[in-house]
Amino acid sequence: MLRATFSPVTTIAFSSVGPSQVPHYRMSSAFQYRCRMQFHPRKNPGQSVARVQRRAAAARSLLMDRDAASIFPANRERRHAADGLSRPSRQKVKHVRQSSSSQAPDEAPTAKRSGTIQSISIAARFLNALAAAPGPLALSLLARETGTGLSTAHRYMQSLIKEGLATQDAATGLYDLGSTALNIGVSALKRIEPVEIAARHMKELARKHAVSGGVAIWTDRGPVLVRWYRSAYFSISSLGLGDVLPIDNTACGLMFQAFLPKETIGKARRLQPSHFRGTAAKNDLLLSIRETRWAELTSHLLSGVTGQAAPVFDAQNELVCVMTTVTDLGQLRTLEDRHALLYAANAVNKETNGGQAVAQHTG
Length: 363
Prior knowledge:
alpha+beta; two-stranded antiparallel sheet; 14 helices
C-alpha cells in the first residue's frame, strides 16, 4: 500500500492501487504546501472530521490524476464518482488536466481558425455528389464519394432531408436532390447572364493575346456585335460595337448557321447587303462545326486575317451568343495563343451550364 503524508494529522492511503501499478514519483513542494494549508488543524480550525475526509478524498483523486493518469485513463471518471468529488473539485481536476496537456510539445499554443464552417463544407460535398450523379445514390456510395463514414453520411443526409435539400425514396432507400435544392438551382439560373459572362472573358482574352474579339448575338439581320474589345497587339479599325457581320463569309456567321434553323438563316440572308452574301455553307461543313463547336476562316475578308468563333449555350443547351475573334496568324506563335478562344469558351460554358464543353481543336 502506498502512503502519502501531508501533515502530522492527515494521511492519504491509496488502498485501491497496488505498489506494482503506480510508478515512483515525488510530489512537488507547492502541492504539499497546498495540502497542508487545507488540512492542517491550526490553519483551518473548526473543520469537522467528515470535511477533512472529503478533502482528503479530493486530494487523493487529484494526485492520482496528476501523476498516474496515463495508467488509468479509462477508469478516471469512475474514480471521481467513487471518491465523492463535488462539482468544484471536478472542475479543478479538469483544469489541472488542461494545464498539463497544454504543455505538450506537439501542440501549438494558439490555433488559427480557417474562417469557414466545416459542417457546411461537408454538407456541400454531399449535395455536389448528388448533383454530379446520373440518378439517386445509395448511402454507401454517398459515403464513399464524400470520404465519410456511414454514420456521418446518414446524419448529414437526414439533416439535408429535413431542410428539403435532399429526399429519400421510401421503397428503395436511395437519396436524391430535394425540392429546395431545385428552387435554389432555378433561382441561380435566372441570375446567369451569358452575354456578360462571355464579355468578361473576351475582355481578358484581348488583353493577354494578340487578338481583337467580342460577343455577337443573332438578330433578324444576322449576327450583331454587342461587345467588342480591341487588342493592343492587333486591331482592325473597320470592326466595332453594333456592326452586323456577314452570315456566309465569317466564322461567326457559320457558327450561327450550324445551330439555327435554315428558315431563320434564310430570312436574315435576304436582308443583308449583296456584298455580304456568299456561297451557302455545305452541310458537311456545318455538321463538322456543330460537332467540334469551332469555326475558323482565313483570308475570307482580308488577306492573312483569321476569324475564329465558338458558341455559348444556356442551361437548356440553346445557343445564346457567339464569341468571335480576328487576328493575324503570324502573331499567334504558340498553340496556346491560337486556342485561347477555345479555352475562354470552355470557361464560359462551364459558368452558364451550357451543355458539353467545346471540343479541343487540333488543327
